[in-house]
Design brief:
This protein is α/β, with parallel strands linked by helices. It has one domain: Rossmann fold, CATH 3.40.50. Helices cover 23% and strands 24% of the residues. It is built from 4 helices and 8 strands. The strands form 2 sheets. It has a 6-stranded mixed β-sheet, with helices on both faces. A two-stranded antiparallel sheet has the order 7-8. Strand 4, helix 3 and strand 5 form a beta-alpha-beta unit. It is globular, with a radius of gyration of 16 Å. The two termini are 26 Å apart. It binds guanosine-5'-monophosphate. The site of guanosine-5'-monophosphate (5GP) has 19 residues, from strand 4, helix 3 and strand 7.
Length: 186
């Protein structure tokens, strides 16, 4: 997508993370995960919908046998602030008992979503659970949460693009940018 696209008018003109930087970092994360799981196989779980672009790119950089599955938990709805409630909208298709799980998330903010999911999957008997997130907003943290693989640490702003939405839009922007406040203040 060209940067003159209409979609870019709704994000700050200085991009937070360009598509080139994303690709570079995803490659490094994939190599790190490959090293850590070199003698194992894993189940990569995409937390829908925001992580799908990151997920698709990341698993192609992980050179160990893996299967994929999907989960969806509600988060912000159409707002830019976390509701604090976690609701499972779509559960995994297969049992994870005895499996090594890599949860792939778009962004960790308060930490509530992942903390809830991790506890839930542990109870189901996963052998191990690690977390990979493309973005981390440590300033927003409300619950303690250990994240194993982080793409980028970002400031406390509302970002869209590369899978991340506002009211389901902007996911198809290839870069990551800060949403202009006029979009959600009108
Ligand atoms: P947490 O439970 O950590 O507060 O929220 C994580 C979820 O909130 C993410 O998966 C994402 O859906 C949403 N979220 C948090 N910050 C942002 C942001 O800056 N932009 C977008 N688009 N979603 C966000």
């Amino acid at each position: 997508m060209d940067k003159n696209s209409m979609l870019y008018q709704d994000i700050e003109s200085e991009l937070l993370i360009t598509r080139e930087k994303i690709a570079e970092r995803v490659r490094v994360l994939g190599q790190q995960i490959t090293r850590d799981y070199h003698d194992r196989s894993l189940v990569a779980v995409s937390i829908l919908k925001g992580s799908v672009l990151f997920f698709a790119d990341l698993i192609r950089e992980i050179d160990v046998p893996l299967t994929i599955d999907f989960m969806q938990a509600s988060s912000y709805g159409d707002s830019t602030e976390s509701s604090g409630f976690v609701h499972i909208k779509k559960d995994l298709d297969r049992s994870i008992e005895g499996k090594d799980i890599l949860l792939v998330e778009d962004i960790v903010d308060s930490g509530r979503t992942l903390s809830y999911l991790k506890t839930m999957l542990k109870k189901r008997g996963a052998a191990s659970i690690r977390i990979a997130t493309l973005l981390d907003k440590p300033e927003g943290r409300q619950v303690e949460m250990e994240v194993d693989y982080v793409g980028f640490i970002i400031p406390n702003a509302f970002v869209v693009g590369y899978g991340l939405d506002y009211a389901e839009r902007y996911r198809n922007i290839p870069d990551i940018g800060i949403l202009r406040p006029k979009v959600y203040q009108q």
